[in-house]
Amino acid sequence: MSEKPCLGCQLANHHLETHTVYENEWVTCFLDIDPLNEGHLLILPKRHFLDVDDLDERTANEIMKASAMLARLLKAEFQPDGITVIQNGGKFNDLTHYHMHVFPRYVEDGFAWVEPADSSYAKKRLSETQVRLVNQTNGLLGG
Fold it and tell me: Which residue among 53, 66, 116, 128 is buried most deeply as judged by most CB within 10 Å?
């Protein structure tokens, strides 16, 4: 029995209908079907990747170039108070295909970054966390 094709791959490669705004050989950018605000866009690579750390360098660069272009487009068309660019990974990647959200923001739109009730533990450990992450970075980079 064959595995069901990835929904993100189907969307990015036009096997399912989208409201595509921009595409090139690496990415497809289309309107989110459940927008936070008018103009809410998704950027999907045409090749299958799950998370940001799976992306190859060329695809990652194409996603970032597209995000900057789309931000300019949204600013020109909707004159928002700002632009949010966000990507969710792991259990928070509901599409199970890498995708980046780019959407216009307005002061009164209700979208919020919700801080944990108590972040004092993390705040108290900034120096220790820095050391851990620098050591891990050096290990990853072979330094």
Answer: 66
Q: What is the chain's pLDDT, residue by residue, as a tens digit (143 residues)?
A: 456 789 999 999 999 999 999 999 999 999 999 999 999 999 999 999 999 999 999 999 999 999 999 999 999 999 999 999 999 999 999 999 999 999 999 999 999 888 778 878 888 889 999 998 899 988 888 76
Asked if the structure places residue 2 within a domain, the reply is: no
pTM of the full predicted structure? Answer: 0.88
Query: If DSSP codes are grouped into helix, strand and coil, which group holds residue 109?
Result: coil
Task: Give the separation between CA 98 and CA 87, rounded to whole angstroms.
Answer: 8
3-state DSSP helix/strand/coil % of the chain, to nearest 5: 40, 15, 45
Q: Does residue 125 fall inside a structural domain? A: no
